[in-house]
From TrEMBL:
The keyword Protein biosynthesis does not apply. SUPFAM superfamilies: Quinoprotein alcohol dehydrogenase-like (SSF50998). PANTHER family: CELL SURFACE PROTEIN, OUTER MEMBRANE PROTEIN ASSEMBLY FACTOR BAMB. The keyword Signal applies. It comes from Myroides marinus. Residues 29-108 form the Pyrrolo-quinoline quinone repeat domain. Residues 1-19 form the signal peptide. This is Pyrrolo-quinoline quinone repeat domain-containing protein. Keywords: Signal.
Amino acid sequence: MKKLLLSLASLFTFFGCQNKQTAEPTVKVAQQTLIFSSNGKVINFDLDNKKVAWEYTSAVDEAGNRNKFTFDETTLYMPFESGKLVALDLLTGKEKWSYTAGQSGMMDMAVGDDGSYTEERGEPYFMGQPLQYKDKVYMVSIGGGNDPYFYVINKGDGTEFKIEGIETKYNLSQPVLCQEMVFVNSGIYLNKYSLLGTGTSYGMYDGITFDSPLYVQMQSDGETLYFGEERGMFYAIPFNEDANVKGDNDDIMDPKNNFKDNLSIYKWRYQSKEYPKLATNSDRNTALYNNTFVVQVRKGDSDEQALIGVNTKDGSEQWKYGLGEEIVNWHKSGERLIGYTTKQIFVLDLKGKELETYAINEGFKPLTNIEETKDGQLVFLTTQGVATLDKTSKQAKILIAYKVKEEYHNTAYLKYFKN
């Protein structure tokens, strides 16, 4: 009996650790809230009172900002292309602190209309999404024309805790937490860092890489890391409690003990036969829930794309939602997968079943991901402002007027919080 109680306690401890690492923070808001970021701005929309609650602007980044924010229970963490990272009070928009990277984005000199020299923004410095965990914020730069770095910032005051160089500038995804380690996909490299920002090994041969870039958002359930290559192969790597691989080759001097040759480290590998390539939209989104890893793939060089739900236990294909065109954007919102093409919005349940589709009116073209409110309406940003789409009438309307610029790289991002 004592052994049984001990086993149950261990089981609850394990799953508690899993949830702590992967669960989204709970934010308490008085009104239904929609937070939006783009063009150097972060805007908090009060949906119940149909107004802008607060707005934050980074003046040097108004020309564009292809970054996403992250948040905890009280604070929003927003990076900008200039190399600035700010912490904002989620309810008031008040700046708690601002951190500027030591090597900011490259600035090019140009001649203005009056003949004077002005500065134009060159290559961006930050272009991803931070990870927040415990008392730290983790962020990776693309360099802004300088060397790229992995950053560890103190959440309390925005001071720099540690920076460490990283191999490539292709750092467009959010770092991921797994077995109390921080993982970063940087081009063909899969890097692992301690919570204090120190690069660590896998218990494998030094200097190992993948054959093609890992251009997809990684996911983790706390024990296993899920990710994919540009060529369309997806992987699941389970780690032991020391965050080392579980393969049958522990010889760190063996050149064959690498990601390509030591297949024993994988729980599974998956590549769709019908859609063998990774979709190359700017978002590179994935989703992980229950026992499903959702990926976006395409048919060779065709525009035909699909969302596929992969079983996280064995890598088998659970479901497939194919479209004859490019999927511009999709996200998990509550108990739905919501996305759109250039022609229609689609809503799926978490098993990939199509629930509704809506034709896109040119005046209500989405510029962001689409969220579902507690009332079952779909909400998103258009060039005219916050739009809602009623599922019954299938009609969209502007809820809050607010002019938004449509960018060539349409990476504007929003998050809905219910009261």
